[in-house]
Design brief:
Helix content: 55-70%
Number of helices: 8
Strand order of the largest sheet: 1-2
Number of strands: 2
Radius of gyration: 18 Å
Distance between the termini: 38 Å
Strand content: 5-15%
Oligomer: single chain
Shape: globular
Largest sheet: 2 strands, antiparallel
Structural class: mainly alpha
Length: about 160
């Protein structure tokens, strides 16, 4: 039984959570069908961050707002699965830059195509006005500071 708010409607926060979970479930199923069934929970954030340009593990950790150790573990796993690689930094021989591999770029492309297809399906079912309003509401909820943050700016596009 769905818990209702005092208005008799499902709780907005729970609806947002369920919508996110359904979106992620569909996305994972789609990319798995294309051969990327081994993707981890944070891979998409790493893909989008590195698509904006190579960075170090420290830079990745800062952009994703996680510890260096956490970023290192994610990168080790993604490298093992063939999505990222480390290359010497031409400007600093001691540093290693993270780059997407061809497999990583292809996985990101598949996810981006799914995102676009998902929105097109929603627009077809609900209409442009509803989806435009949804975008406005989500933008307001996220807040301009969050959307403009350099940490998340690269993830948006």
């Amino acid at each position: 039984m769905t818990r209702m708010t005092h208005t008799g409607k499902p709780d907005l926060g729970i609806l947002l959570l369920l919508a996110d979970q359904e979106f992620v479930r569909e996305l994972r199923g789609h990319v798995a069908g294309l051969g990327y069934e081994d993707q981890g929970r944070s891979d998409g954030f790493v893909f989008r961050t590195l698509a904006a340009g190579p960075t170090t593990i420290s830079g990745l950790a800062e952009r994703l707002e996680i510890t260096k150790q956490g970023a290192g573990q994610i990168v080790d796993d993604m490298e093992r699965r063939g999505y990222v690689e480390r290359r010497p930094d031409p400007a600093d021989a001691r540093a290693r830059l993270l780059h997407l591999t061809d497999r990583g770029r292809a996985a990101l492309s598949a996810a981006r195509k799914f995102h676009q297809s998902y929105e097109r399906r929603l627009r077809k079912r609900l209409g442009d006005a509803a989806i435009d309003t949804l975008r406005e509401v989500l933008t307001e909820m996220a807040g301009e500071a969050q959307i403009s943050s350099p940490h998340f700016r690269a993830l948006m596009f």
